[in-house]
């Protein structure tokens, strides 16, 4: 057997502030041999962010709350216990439609964790989008994420 057992207890992990909520690293690529990553996402009620494409595939499993996912031209309303898998490069976005939601996000490879960490370290939280947009665009460019026009 190769590798090492990794445990992240309740309330533990590295929190990374993103525009759609706090993504806490529960299992990073360094714990899975770079195969996948696991994040606990705590997100407040908010409208959907801009649709985007990322180079990694992912699964969202709703633990608490209600989430509407727009993916590949389809709309899916998810509640506790529901999951959706989104292929790499599939255009998607999501919005929390309840007061808040807690989602388990599992992504392939090591790209999502590097992207979230870079975004959290580079883009100042709570600032007007006009002020931080150049930093946002630079971070997404570095990680192969692309923004799409709403409705795409």
UniProtKB/TrEMBL annotation:
Gene3D superfamilies: Jelly Rolls
Superkingdom of source: Bacteria
Cupin type-2 domain boundaries: 43-106
Endpoints of the signal sequence: none
Classification via InterPro entries: Cupin_2, QDO-like, RmlC-like_jellyroll, RmlC_Cupin_sf
SUPFAM superfamilies: RmlC-like cupins
Protein name as catalogued: Cupin domain-containing protein
Organism: Amycolatopsis thermalba
């Amino acid at each position: 057997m190769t590798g090492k057992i990794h445990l992240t207890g309740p309330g533990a992990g590295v929190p990374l502030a993103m525009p759609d909520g706090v993504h806490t690293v529960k299992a990073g690529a360094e714990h899975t041999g770079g195969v996948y990553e696991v994040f606990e996402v705590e997100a407040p009620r908010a409208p959907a962010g801009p649709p985007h494409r990322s180079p990694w595939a992912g699964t969202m499993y709703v633990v608490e709350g209600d989430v509407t996912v727009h993916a590949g031209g389809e709309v899916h309303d998810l509640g506790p216990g529901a999951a959706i898998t989104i292929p790499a490069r599939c255009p998607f976005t999501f919005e929390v439609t309840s007061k808040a939601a807690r989602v388990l996000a599992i992504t392939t490879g090591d790209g999502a964790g590097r992207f979230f960490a870079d975004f959290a370290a580079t883009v100042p939280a709570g600032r007007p989008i006009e002020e931080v947009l150049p930093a946002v665009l630079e971070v997404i460019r570095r990680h192969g994420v692309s923004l799409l026009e709403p409705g795409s």
